[in-house]
Amino acid sequence: MVMQVIAAVEHSSSFLDWKKKNPHFYLVHCFRMINEGKYEDWQVGYYSKEKDKVVTFALSGNDVSTGGEDEVFKEGGHLMMLDIKRVDVDAKKALEQAEALLTKEYPAQTPKNTILLLQHLKDGQRWTITFITRSFSAITVKVDAISGKIREHSMTSIFDFAVKK
Known about the structure:
Layout: H1 2-10, H2 13-21, E1 26-35, E2 38-39, E3 42-48, E4 53-60, E5 63-71, H3 91-105, E6 111-121, E7 124-133, E8 137-144, E9 150-157, H4 158-164
Antiparallel strand pairs: 1-2, 1-3, 1-6, 3-4, 4-5, 6-7, 7-8, 8-9
């Protein structure tokens, strides 16, 4: 699924026109939200080390739209290139594994929204799946995008995020 999403974006006229003018940008993430069971558009992000900016393309059906250049949320350095050819675990499989863990480890938590994020970090390429629950908790499950193994999981109160800022 995610490979088809990237292919659809990268074969669109809006991407091809943009890429001609911006050859230094490279693939860094794929992102999707599920709001109360409704799947939102896929968003595919490209990063430029030169500009230290990200440009995101949204895929809605067969239509591709682009956003402007945005600031990058990172901890020093630059964003690593996502090597999609090395991603063996698709979004559906990663989500199934995360949901199974949620049922087993956090049975009292009912997810309202889900965030899927595929990216390449220092510890490798991974899916980070975050469930926002009805009790205002965020349960994060990190799934290795190559092996499919769950690397870690945690639960945090959403209110803790507000305190940290």
